[in-house]
## 1
Amino acid sequence: MRTAFRVFAAAVLSLAASALHADNFPSKPITIITAFGPGSASDTIARVVGQPLGIALKQSIIVEARPGASGAISAMYVARAPADGYTMLLTTNSPHSAAPFLMKNIAYDPVKDFTPITRYGSFTLMLCINPKIPAHSVKELIEYARANPGKLTFASGNSAGIVAGETLKHWAKLDMLHVPYKSTPQGVTDLIAGRVSMMFVDLTAGIEHVRAGNLRALATTRIKRSTLLPDLPTMDEAGVTGFDMDAWAGFVVPAKTPPEVTTLLSNTMRPIIDDPKTKATLGRVGFEAFSSSPQELEDHIKVQLGKWKKMVEDAGIQPE
């Protein structure tokens, strides 16, 4: 009887502590962990939402990058963080869709180890080359690569870049070397300098370089043309039939975070993301912002795991 009472008392105290914690949330700064470094699309969009979120919650929002291993390092860090709402992950298809199939072992479960908060939106990628390469279309690039086997290299700064590059390489049967980077900005820097030949770059990190003439964009990765670059064909239009890659972003917290906290975060963040000013700010850098319910994000993650598994397999990529 005493043992049962102790168990009951402990459960009551735990629930009371959880309710008290939720009532006081947030009582200290909240950290948003990003999978990629400063200057990356993840870093940029995290800061756009971070400022109004801090105002709404009356707390400081800290954006902290933990790049590496296709985003798996950031996901593992957040999965192991205290489940109290003070550590969030701005996740993308890299750690939550592709990494499980690009790597032999990851130290987290993309579904079980996280509680979803809301979608944040979608990225569009574009195939960019160094302007010194004599190609002005995907067809010309493929012809040049075939005429110069082993000469070209492709950079990647995230899992989307890896899968897109390997898909093109596999589809066109090209002899190219993959050069991975921890984050997109470092790869873009080397692409501009001519140290690598090509890269699938998200518009957020690359559009200004294209406009300035530092990079030459050949095609975008979605099945529909980008409204920011309407004259640029899609990979599908350029001849790589069926090529359709839509990178995504969303916010999650560690599993078992109190529902009162996750509900507060979701209800606070969704109006910020859907605000026309936020959408316009992010739209100018090539990111399509929109929110979702936590359940919709969870469903999306499950669907995307299946989609990216197939893309990795179709590209002939072997897990490392």
Note: Residues 1-20 have pLDDT under 50 and may be disordered.
## 2
Amino acid sequence: MNPINSINNLPANQEGMKKTGNNDLFSGVSFEERLKSAVGQVNNLQHTADDASEAVVRGELGVHEGMMALQEADLSLRFLNQVRSKAMTAYQEIMRMQF
């Protein structure tokens, strides 16, 4: 259920990067594909949180489980917003460069 778990599969240090090879790690996947995937996962978490909140109101799900789904959706949206902000900042810096 947690889309961020896929990040845990990445090597945590430089030694891990050397073992797997930096080119092998990201080969075949473009930034656009990764971004679309992340937006899709955040969207799915938002829908799951909506369903969980409705289930809590109907009494089909406990309050704790509903709050956990809402928090997970909130954190994923905040994380995606930070990535967007960093990407926009990088784009603006590139546009300011003089060649």
Note: The mean pLDDT is 81.
